[in-house]
Design goal:
Number of domains: 2
CATH architecture of the largest domain: 2-Layer Sandwich
Number of strands: 15
Structural class: alpha+beta
CATH superfamily of the largest domain: Aldehyde oxidase/xanthine dehydrogenase, molybdopterin binding domain
Largest sheet: 7 strands, mixed
CATH class of the largest domain: Alpha Beta
Shape: flat
Number of helices: 13
Distance between the termini: 33 Å
Order of helices and strands: HHEEHEHHEEEHHEEEEHEHHEEHEHEH
């Protein structure tokens, strides 16, 4: 994967980073299937210590500013007893996760659950890796592992004082069986986890090196702007492509499933301007008359409905209110709010009958993979999701309709990379949050 740099500072830094970093595991594009097969030896699935003592820590939950990348790495590093300054983040791809029978488990990051749901098993992964490294050193020294300890990426044999770095025994450790029930530290003894350390993502963000999905550039890439039916449940009736096909930069006007139309052009601005000029006729469907007022009325009726859903019931509130000596009434209401991310929804897709590649920012890599599979019609193993750092999420990026749409557009121009970028207006109009249908297949909270 290469990028075409332009002569401005940010693009120059991004292009230089891509050219210099290649497909290294610590760049934010992640670890695809080919990389995983040739990656450095791993000590369990969560840790990969390199000969130079670099500690690759695998992160499958999404970083979108909330700090989960650093927080999860701290938990693993704590149990591993490694040098925090040597830690780099690695991102196993969802396809690789499937190939390994979902070894890394749930990729979903929503509802502030990234650390809550996974802290136990990622800590166990760090502890298991530490035990493997210690055992490898003990085997080399021909001493009991119980006489050895690890701290700051150094293993020490207590009686003799001999020392060795993690990197020196990493390959040997990778050949050992992974302990099933490693003992975890008492949190009162933590030195890394939960402590105010330097975040892993801060330097690149400060220097402009950080890549987001919107920064993706692939050789030969074209750009797409899209317009969905402005009413949920509505459909696309017709459009007159001939009216815009000769506008500057326009390459193709395409129907996207039964509810959207997109313009593909050499630049996104050309695509956007042509889309604005495109005559479109919509079938607004059953929700055409829905308004803020009708939604407010529907919600108000729900408060007193006999079939209302009560999430938490303690006592008999209705009886208490009916028998109260004094009643104070107040009505509080607030309209639906858009999950307005700083980075608009976007995805870049290169589709061929042999492979479908997606570069995008998503709160659930597995759901993005599922969306791509459904749209492309190709088997799961013919997909690669390059998960890139999110420009915020708020739950909006658990809904991967932008991945679906990008794949459907790219399918109509096989071999040509297409970057779909939703305009702010389009994002606000169709800014629904996640629904069960967009959450991929059922996923447990920890690996099976």
């Amino acid at each position: 994967m290469n990028f075409v740099p332009k002569m401005n500072r940010r693009s120059f830094v991004i292009g230089a980073a891509a050219a210099g970093g290649g497909l290294a595991l610590n760049v934010p594009f992640g670890m695809d299937a080919a990389q995983a097969e040739t990656a450095a030896a791993e000590q369990g699935i969560w840790v990969s210590v390199k000969p130079d003592d670099t500690v690759g820590i695998r992160i499958v939950r999404a970083e979108m500013g909330q700090g989960s990348q650093t927080g999860l790495a701290q938990l693993i590093a704590e149990e591993l007893d490694c040098d925090w300054s040597k830690v780099v983040a690695e991102y196993p791809s969802p396809t690789e996760n499937l190939k390994r029978k979902r070894a890394w488990g749930n990729y979903n990051s929503s509802g502030s659950r990234a650390i809550r749901e996974s802290n136990q098993y990622v800590r166990e992964g760090g502890a298991a890796a530490r035990m493997m490294l210690i055992q490898a050193a003990a085997n080399e020294w021909k001493v009991p592992a119980s006489e050895c300890s690890a701290a700051n990426s150094i293993i020490t044999h207590g009686p003799s004082g001999r020392k060795v770095s993690f990197g020196k025994v990493a390959d040997a450790a990778a050949k050992l069986p992974v302990p099933e029930k490693p003992k975890l530290k008492d949190p009162k003894d933590w030195k890394i986890a939960g402590k105010p350390l330097k975040r892993l993502d801060t330097p690149d963000k400060l220097t402009g090196k950080q890549m987001y999905s919107i920064d993706t550039k692939v050789p030969g890439m074209l750009n797409a702007a899209i317009k969905d039916c402005p009413v949920f449940g509505g459909k696309l009736k017709s459009f007159d492509a001939a009216k815009v096909e000769k506008m500057p930069g326009v390459k193709k006007v395409v129907k996207v499933d039964d509810k959207a139309v997109a313009v593909v052009a050499d630049t996104w601005w050309h695509a956007k301007k042509a889309l604005e000029a495109l005559p479109i006729e919509w079938d607004l469907g059953p929700n055409a008359k829905v308004s803020s007022e009708s939604i407010a009325k529907w919600l108000e009726e729900g408060l007193t409905a006999e079939t209302k859903l009560v999430g938490n019931k303690a006592g008999d509130a209705q009886s208490a209110i009916a028998g109260a000596a004094k009643k104070v009434e107040a009505v509080y209401a607030w309209p639906y709010q858009n999950h307005a991310c700083m980075e608009p929804m976007n995805a870049t897709v290169r589709y061929t009958p042999e492979k479908c590649e997606v570069w995008t920012s998503t709160q659930n890599g597995e759901a993005a993979l599922a969306a791509a599979i459904a749209a492309s019609g190709l088997p799961a193993e013919k997909h690669e999701i390059h998960r890139i750092l999110l420009g915020t999420g708020f739950g909006r990026r658990t809904r991967n309709e932008y991945v679906t749409e990008a794949v459907l557009i790219a399918k109509q121009m096989p071999g040509t990379p297409i970057k779909l970028l939703k305009s702010r207006e389009e994002d606000m109009t169709n800014g629904a949050c996640a629904s069960p249908a967009n959450r991929s297949w059922p996923m447990p909270d920890r690996p099976p």
